[in-house]
Fold these 4 entries.
Entry 1:
Amino acid sequence: MAINPLALMKMKDRLHLFRQEHPKVGPFFSMLREKAVSEGSVVELKVTTPDGEEYVTNIRLTANDVETIHMLKK
């Protein structure tokens, strides 16, 4: 699979915009990488819609998950 340079540039711009609009997210994820990403940790994701409906899921991190996260941070 080839990487589209234009798509990569657009993604970079979108990530910059996301960081500007949500400045607390980056430091939160940095703290998690250093302290909470280990095999057996549970990651939970909750989304609440504007009308109050909630969706929740979670995963228990495996060794493969931890390796993937460490690769992504490089």
Note: The mean pLDDT is 92.
Entry 2:
Amino acid sequence: MPERTSMHAARTVIALLAAAALCQACSRVPTALVGGPVGPYDRPYPATIQPAEQLDVQVARDGPVITLTNTTAHSFGPSTLWINRRYSRPLGGLDIGQTVTLPLKQFRDEYGDPFRGGGFFATEQPDRVVMAELETVADSQTVIYGLVVVGGQN
């Protein structure tokens, strides 16, 4: 009988350790509040940078995703895409004529909170996309370009 009790206790300990490890893995959020700086997701909107001109890059919302189409004559290298001057997401680049589709849930604010993009299983009202900007480097300076938002509602 003591063998069964110790076997049951060992299984219980293993199950508790596995549950604790699972909870720890699920709580990892890309933010400075948990584990230190991780890059573009852990900073506020750079309000000290004066916005440059507005580009003819259209940002269209279709439910929980946005689509960018670069109709300018310029390519952009690694950049940060800002929504509503609060939520950001790194962008590897945007070539001439390129179209990129991004899930809104990938955008985070400085505290790691995601953009509420909506969708079938959404429990809260989705946020509206009212402004989109591209932060990038041009002529050795960081600049922010305004983008054209079309269909900003869900």
Note: Residues 1-30 form one domain.
Entry 3:
Amino acid sequence: MVASHLLAHPNRFVAQDRMLTDTVRWGTVDSTSLRLMGQIGYDELIEAAASSGYVAPDLGGIWATAPYLHNGSVPTLWHLLHAEDRPERFWIGGHALDYEFVGIAGEIDEAGTYVYPDGYEPWSRPFLYDTREPGRSNQGHEFMTSSEAGKRALLEYMKVK
């Protein structure tokens, strides 16, 4: 029998140079922001530190946590797995879930914006997320490539995770 043990889960640190995502968010964590987090009590809930990357969260229940990536810049898990099709702009807030693509339900309009499906009325005030703004880039995690069948299987798995 082969013995194994988990080295680091769910709090595995991933360096920025591996993910290639937007650096603005982690770059703003410095001694001042860490001190302020402590003053308002967040240091009792999280362990924050200045670093050059991110600690990815556990993926349990990911189907209900759209939008995705560390800065919320990808509307569905399908878009996460298809980097070339990630929309530059999309609506968040009061959104319906898409159970096929796993994330925010929508479609691309004539302006290239991912909008809610025709006739859908958001249940709260939506916000237009623009990935061209500083700190909101939807780049990165493009190393997560697989065959199309593998991507479909991963999406199906994430629906029940």
Note: The first helix runs from residue 16 to 19.
Entry 4:
Amino acid sequence: MASDFRCDCFITSALDVVGDRWSLVIVKHMLLGHKKTFKELFEADETMASNILSARLKMLENFKIVSKHSIPENKKTKIYLLTDKGLGLAPLIAEFAMWSHNHIMEFHPTLKPNEHIESLLEDKKAYLKGIVASYKNFMTSFA
């Protein structure tokens, strides 16, 4: 996998992994929406082609950002769960949300604050702690 990186820069290397158009969107849906199956992710608000979703999930799995599991009730259905490495992206997602709130709203008239952004702006540390704890609690039902 080392040959997939463009250079020896930490920022560029991180962007090589999660800087495409869809990877952080997938992580966001998993973290905030507790989406866990291909179907749930595919049916999210953003329109993502199934082949792109499949490729991104495989790449996120290769980098150990998500893990894929079978569920006992239905061996055919696979679920995807964020790993600790994936949960480590929560602060990055929060920073993107705050940056967007502060700098994109003027260009995106239908973008309105919701309970996530309001909680984040009120107390970022508590918000991050809450969403990570909520996700970990959600994960326990699949462990």
Note: Helices lie at 10-18, 23-33, 38-42, 50-62, 84-87, 90-103, 115-122, 124-139.
